[in-house]
Amino acid sequence: MAAGLPDPKEIEELLLGGELCYTRVDAVRLSGVTREFSGRVWRAFGYPSMPDEVIAYTEGDVAALCRIRRLMDDGVLDEDGVIRLVRAFGQTMTRLAEWQVNLLGGMLSQDPQEPPTAEAVGSIVDIAEKHIGEFEPLVVHAWRRQLAAAGTRAIAAASTREAAAQGEPGAVAAGRTLTTVGFADMVSFTQVSRDLEELELARVVEWFEETASDIVASCGGRLVKTLGDEVLFCADSPLVGGEIALAIAETIQDEIEVPDVRVGVAYGPVLPLMGDMFGTTVNLAARLTKLARPGSVVIDTELAAALEGEPGLEVTKIVRRPVRGLGIIQPSVLRRSTRNPDVQDAPDGPGNAAGGGPA
How many structural domains compose the chain? Predict the structure, then answer.
């Protein structure tokens, strides 16, 4: 152990909330699940496989397996459902944990690109000891808020399905919800990544993701995922989706140190699955992004029809073109209107020429 550094075992026990005290055989016996299933759960969480005789489980691990077994005993989830749920937890928490450690390390280090000093590690451990009880409820709070939002969307989808079954106008067959889906993609990111130092590039990507996320949330949409130089967002309302797209393009265009973005947005049925979105509408939005010029928003026919005539917006058709896998499409450019909404167009005629009013 290097001088001045904390004992890794003590850190592990601190963050796990208890010492490692059980083997896999013990955990299986105490929780009542099978050896094979416990291995599937362990891997789904993202933990490395451990030999049966190695002490690698805490009281908390056994309690988690017991909770999982009760969910299956009560018929809430089957084994495959548990694995899907646990994998989602594992993937989400892996990223969150790395993010938190990097954030604290960056705050306490002179150079974020260098490994933390013993002093910085000691400070992080001190923060964990004193404040981990504050961080944990924040994670649960954020999860509950997002769960409430997802539950509301599920109720809306069920309502749409009922409307479709009753043949109401505007309802989608099979109850698939109409959603506005958009991609915002940084222009020439490959070249930018060559020109910038790693730390500068990381800051550009972080600023882009934070800015897009704030805009999506403030407008009432949802950030589905981020892909470094690209974000995928969605909104229930066509107007909200269009506003998000324009706001992202405008905000980033105003930032001279960040590449412009091009945005593609489509409106139609989607298949939500495991926190992601799939379907032709999503594919179309991705293809529209490639048609957009830097700083512009290109939309599909369905969204253009939904936004036509909206105050403050202009929809302009551009050249129809073939798109692989989707046939010939009619894209349109979405812009803010430059016309004064209080001034109505007057019909052409002699009496409406400049200075030609009634005598």
Answer: 2
Do 198 and 117 sit in the same domain of this protein? no
pTM: 0.73
**Segment 107-159, tens digit of pLDDT:** 776 666 667 677 777 787 888 888 888 888 999 999 999 899 888 878 877 77
Q: Are residues 82 and 113 in the same domain?
A: yes
Query: Which residue, chain included where needed, has tokens 């000691």?
Result: 122
Asked if residue 117 lies in contact with residue 75, where contact means CB atoms within 8 angstroms, the answer is no
86/47 same-domain check: yes
- For residues 310 and 324, what is the distance between their CA atoms, to the nearest angstrom? 31
Q: What are phi and psi of 91, to 5 degrees?
A: -65, -40
Q: DSSP letters of 195-239?
A: HS-HHHHHHHHHHHHHHHHHHHHHHT-EEEEE-SSEEEEEESSHH
Q: What pLDDT is stored for residue 113 in this prediction? A: 63
- Cβ contact 205:197 at 8 Å: no
- Looking at the structure, tell me whether residues 331 and 183 fall in a common domain: yes
Q: Nearest to residue 251, comparing CAs of 289, 196, 214, 222?
A: 214
